[in-house]
Specification:
mainly alpha, single chain
Length: about 110
Amino acid sequence: MTGTSVIPAMIVIMVVIRTQKIINRFKNTRTINPETAKTLSELNIRRGFLFNRLLRRNVFMEITSDRFYLQENNLDEYFKARRMRMLSVVLILILIIFIDIYFLHFNS
């Protein structure tokens, strides 16, 4: 094993950490409703891939003048869906491991 197998895991960890930082920026500034909405420059957030993904999933809501706020109910739904996706991936990996062990054991 060359060590390259940890690269995808590291990318996932970095994405999760960066996503949480963006969400925390909204929470820490109490930008959680239309009345407290702020621009991304006020929040010191770049409108990049991760922000746009959360915007598409309605975690952030945009109101007039490029002002955004965190929609906490949708955030809960986003985390539930993410947990279900992760559970599916883990179950598939476990299944692959068991199949691999089964064929190694009975075909040797």
